[in-house]
């Protein structure tokens, strides 16, 4: 406090203090969180396009936090080069590949901006659109989701994503916005709160949606990947989908109970049929082997499926209970205070 004598209790708030640092004079710092995994063919083009877009907003300060998520190609060397040329660039080098969601988390841990933008580094999220997110933030939004109006991915990816988001919405209480990935802007206070969520199997877009605050959307057309292939093969996509579902819903567990009732009902029909045959048509024996096999396999299948669902939740409990660090950093390169 700059004041020496404290004002009497009934005095109005010291409005004059605000004049010491007028809001308009303080430039906003916008941080970009940029996960990179084997993007050597596209990262230079991405950076150039982003820098060009940022050039159109001289009234803002920017900070670019690239997170190298254990790339096995030349991505790190290229990122180091970018950090040397530009003090606004910071590179967090992971000890290994920890996955996209964790990379985003590390970036958020380091980003210092008044607003933080998370976007992919394959030019699927156009840098120009990120400035539209900034406009929405300046207009008062605390979370700005970039919603995919159209996307250029394969028909399979589009169809599965479309189905998944609708399924997720219908089975959770969280209002997860449709057709949004992780491309979004978070106000400083949202980013600070988000950092308190330290769960391992994380689904960042779901967590953000569950937080509340003033949320809004900006629609954009998602481009094709500039270079290279998707780093989200089916296996990783499926894992993210399971993480999303199990992070926000116990619907799969409840489904087991429903499945149990359905199977019981079916077996009741079978029992009634067998009894009816015995009493009314004793000359016909209910065919044995095929029926038995079907029942055994059906029951075996449903039971294993149910165990799998329970196992998924137990697996989450297990990894959370271990409480291991979310990620390990080899080094942080660049930034305004670095000596490099
Ligand atoms: N990514 C990452 N770690 C991974 C996989 C992906 O940091 O294990 C990054 C990747 O470099 C890209 C973003 O996450 O910037 C999104 O990945 P990708 O474009 O492959 O996913 P898609 O757009 O196909 O869903
Ligand atoms: Mg992509």
From TrEMBL:
<feature type="domain" description="Glycosyltransferase 2-like">
    <location>
        <begin position="31"/>
        <end position="194"/>
    </location>
</feature>
<keyword id="KW-0808">Transferase</keyword>
<feature type="transmembrane region" description="Helical">
    <location>
        <begin position="288"/>
        <end position="314"/>
    </location>
</feature>
<comment type="similarity">
    <text>Belongs to the glycosyltransferase 2 family.</text>
</comment>
<keyword id="KW-0812">Transmembrane</keyword>
<feature type="transmembrane region" description="Helical">
    <location>
        <begin position="255"/>
        <end position="276"/>
    </location>
</feature>
<keyword id="KW-0328">Glycosyltransferase</keyword>
<dbReference type="InterPro" id="IPR050256">
    <property type="entry name" value="Glycosyltransferase_2"/>
</dbReference>
<dbReference type="InterPro" id="IPR029044">
    <property type="entry name" value="Nucleotide-diphossugar_trans"/>
</dbReference>
<protein>
    <submittedName>
        <fullName>Glycosyltransferase involved in cell wall biosynthesis</fullName>
        <ecNumber>2.4.-.-</ecNumber>
    </submittedName>
</protein>
<dbReference type="Pfam" id="PF00535">
    <property type="entry name" value="Glycos_transf_2"/>
</dbReference>
<keyword id="KW-1133">Transmembrane helix</keyword>
<keyword id="KW-0472">Membrane</keyword>
<dbReference type="InterPro" id="IPR001173">
    <property type="entry name" value="Glyco_trans_2-like"/>
</dbReference>
<dbReference type="GO" id="GO:0016757">
    <property type="term" value="F:glycosyltransferase activity"/>
</dbReference>
